[in-house]
Design goal:
The protein is an alpha+beta fold. The chain is built from five helices and four strands. A hairpin with a 5-residue loop joins strand 1 and strand 2.
Length: about 190
Amino acid sequence: MADTEAPAASNSEPVPIVRYPNRRLYDRSQARYVTLPEIAELVRKGKKVTVRDSKTGEDLTRLILTQIIVEQYPERMELFPVSVLSSIIHANDTALGFLRDYLAQSLSYLELMQRPATANPLLLPLQWMRSFVPNPEMPHVTLGREPDSDALLRRIAELERRLDAFQAGEATPATTTPAREKPGRKRSASR
């Protein structure tokens, strides 16, 4: 994919893709047919895509992105434990609504945390989270190895618990600091 992208398709503007009955995908911004790997490349570059059915106008974006993950990145499906996938199939509308809202909120937080601070453009993404993690060593991703997804899920749950406690004004054992003395009070002389 060379520099043939139309200037109209900026990062804030979704790239319009149409899926025809023969299952071919047409990128209107480039005026050409594209493949699933090419759509994946657009997403990796930070572009937003929208995929619509040519006849009905139905939004197929979620379906196409899911297809890309299942076909091209099957190892990333390990992010969803079998119990979660089973729960999604088994759940009623109320539970699905809760799960959808929870995941959407979690992903929006993750996206926000990955952005470098505007005040300090040299600050690495997620650098500020190190103060909340009990183990100062963050999991590192090396070529060919993904961090243990269960360990990451446990860390996320622990961070959420700490954030909730922090917002409620409670101190967590790992972050407890000695209380300051109130003016006018004297310490006991038990030294």
